[in-house]
Amino acid sequence: MAKVSIEGAGKFSHHYPKVATIVTVHATGKDNAMAVAWHSSISANPPMYGVSIAPKRFTMELMLEAKEFGVNFMPIEKAELVASVGGISGREVDKFQRWGIEKDKPLKTSVPILRDAYACYECKLVDHTTYGDHVWVVGEILATHFEEELFTEGQALNLERVSPALFMGNELYTIPAKDNIRNLDRKVYGKR
Ligand SMILES: Cc1cc2nc3c(=O)[nH]c(=O)nc-3n(C[C@H](O)[C@H](O)[C@H](O)COP(=O)(O)O)c2cc1C
Q1: Whole-angstrom Cα distance, residue 59 to residue 32?
Q2: Domains and CATH numbers, the chain
Q3: Fewest CB within 10 angstroms: 27, 82, 124, 161, which?
Q4: Ligand 1 in reach of 99 Cβ (< 6 A)
Q5: Ligand 1 near 90 CB (within 6 A)
Q6: Residue 142: pLDDT above 80?
Q7: Ligand 1 centre and the CA of 140: distance in Å?
Q8: Burial per residue of 116-147, b for 16 or more beta-carbon CB atoms within 10 angstroms, e otherwise
Q9: What is the pLDDT of residues 96-108, one digit of tens each?
């Protein structure tokens, strides 16, 4: 099938799906949460994680103040919560109060750990750099919270037990196909 070639990034939706996260922060006595689809692992040792946040977000302001943030990985059942916290600013409303968002205690920071997340990283903000219209915020992971029974022994997410909310862009969400998992050992495949 022939590809269409265009200049630039078009609707910039070709890199989806991405697991939808909710980034949380606590600063000046206030909790806030926003949906974040642009995020990535950066380093394993020390463990580092990055999130891409537009400078106008209230969360950005609070993150710079608190110098820490949480990255909460959400199941598809909570996709509506993702859309909700991604649909209004914490400058206008207390999102935790409006949607009765439950939280657990953090281990090393003051970031809210969402009870409905299947996993959450607590990060200390170590760097931030503006690229285009977003700020790439880098955090060192100080603690991890995860629902042990939703992971395999090798700590891979068990898709028989949980479906992460995959964001497709354009306000669309889906789930991964569970029946299609293949174990492709890179040591074997690298030598084929
Ligand atoms: C699924 C989804 C993903 C989003 N991803 C991002 C993102 O990666 N970076 C960003 O700056 N905003 C993203 N947004 C928009 C923010 O979540 C939204 O503007 C939010 O209301 C900001 O809240 P705040 O002002 O309280 O920080 C996303 C929204 C949705 C619904």
Answers
A1: 7
A2: 18-189 (2.30.110.10)
A3: 161
A4: no
A5: yes
A6: yes
A7: 21
A8: ebbbbbbbbbeebeeeeebbbbbbbbbbebee
A9: 999 999 999 999 9
